[in-house]
Specification:
Enzyme class: hydrolase
Largest sheet: 5 strands, mixed
CATH class of the largest domain: Alpha Beta
Keywords: Hydrolase
CATH superfamily of the largest domain: Fructose-1,6-Bisphosphatase, subunit A, domain 1
EC number: 3.1.3.7
Strand content: 15-25%
CATH topology of the largest domain: Fructose-1,6-Bisphosphatase, Chain A, domain 1
Strand order of the largest sheet: 1-2-3-4-5
Protein name: 3'(2'),5'-bisphosphate nucleotidase CysQ
Radius of gyration: 17 Å
Order of helices and strands: HHHEEHEEEEHEHEHEEH
Shape: globular
CATH architecture of the largest domain: 2-Layer Sandwich
Number of helices: 8
GO molecular function: 3'(2'),5'-bisphosphate nucleotidase activity
Number of domains: 2
Structural class: alpha/beta
Length: about 260
């Protein structure tokens, strides 16, 4: 049974999201291992291949659902749908392209939203052979020892994060993909992931769904919930952190703006 046949047989959305993310990750690993390309050309091939695979499977398995992908122009028809799949076929394209360096901080995001809220979500970390999904939420490990660790963008760490870190005497840890950063908090490698200054719904939807299912806090930086399938796909800020520090993090964020 191939991946499409398997997907068509899956009635459970959570299992479907996980299977799609894993299959796209497997395809990306195969491309990366065999490619003579690197950098932006490799990223472009990976993006296109994973996007086509995911779109084809969802189109066959859930033909009545809406669809939003980083790689397609937004379809306004999705705005009238209660169920909408929001995907990023390759989050962390830059890191994926750095295959010679062996970077693993790139991901596949597959999320089903219902009424604008993340429902069945999966984040695959293909280079690590791991998929995190809402159908079987991860068991949250103990918090890291030592100073508070806050994950930020590898290439554009927000000034807000620097101010928050100074107030909390925290360590800023740069990392690639938003999905990789969110899953690092799920895995107990850091206390929080803070972003401000520009993202889209596909960057955060699946990570937020998986983080919430694992028992973490996930919100906008003003504490409001992350609501998806908006007419404008921009969602410029995000906080994912352990629940025990959420109140203090949000307070310091507010004071630092």
């Amino acid at each position: 049974m191939n991946v499409l046949e398997e997907a068509l047989a899956l009635q459970d959305d959570h299992r479907l999201a996980a299977r799609i993310a894993t299959a796209a990750g497997d395809a990306l690993n195969a491309i990366r291992a065999s490619a003579v390309l690197a950098g932006k050309p490799l990223g472009a091939v990976g993006d296109a291949t994973a996007n086509e695979l995911i779109a084809r499977i969802i189109g066959h398995a859930r033909p009545d659902d809406g669809f939003l992908s980083e790689e397609f122009a937004p379809d306004p028809k999705r705005l009238s749908c209660d169920r909408v799949w929001i995907i990023d076929p390759l989050d962390g394209t830059r890191e994926y392209g750095e295959r010679i360096e062996g970077r693993s901080d790139w991901a596949v995001h597959v999320a089903l939203t219902v009424g604008g809220m993340p429902d069945a979500c999966a984040v695959a970390l293909p280079a690590l052979g791991m998929t995190f999904a809402t159908g079987s939420p991860a068991t949250l490990p103990a918090a890291p020892q030592g100073r508070l660790k806050i994950l930020v963008s590898r290439t554009r760490a927000p000034e807000l994060a620097r101010k928050v870190a100074e107030r909390l005497d925290a360590e800023l840890v740069p990392m690639g993909s938003a999905g990789a950063k969110a899953m690092a908090v799920v895995r107990g490698e850091a206390h929080a992931y803070l972003h401000a200054g520009g993202q889209y719904e596909w960057d955060s939807c699946a990570p937020v769904g998986v983080a919430l299912a694992a028992g973490l806090h996930a919100s906008r930086i003003d504490g409001s919930p992350c609501v998806y399938n908006g007419a404008d796909a921009a969602m410029p800020d995000l906080l994912i952190c352990r629940r025990e520090i959420a109140e203090s993090m949000l307070g310091v964020i507010a004071a630092s703006q």
